[in-house]
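User: Before I run my own analysis I want an independent prediction to cross-check against. Here's the chain; please return only the structure tokens and, at the end, one sentence I can use as a sanity check.
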Amino acid sequence: MSGPAPLAERVTRALEAMERRRSRGRIEIAAGVLLGAYAGSREGGGLWGSLAGAAIVGLAAFLSVRLSLALRRRALTRLSAEDPAEVARVSERYRIAQAVGRTSRWKAFR
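Assistant: Structure tokens:
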């Protein structure tokens, strides 16, 4: 029977989950704005109905994403209580790895 995962692994999983939520959240917000605009115009509201629908549904999607990220940050803060130095080290290494990955992807497009 295996014990709990090492702290570094749990921090990495938490950071990966936050990154996935951020990227999916952008798509959800954009889809919410478009869906709200469509629904507002379909209800016969014209331009103002479309804008109101986009604002309402977009705001709901935005708040959902922000709440989810806040909960994930809270979980990361709880992990930080175990060993703040280790969490800071793992977080910095994760961010550097993400930056290197982004740089290498951009080089592929040049």
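Sanity check: The chain is about 90% helix and 0% strand.
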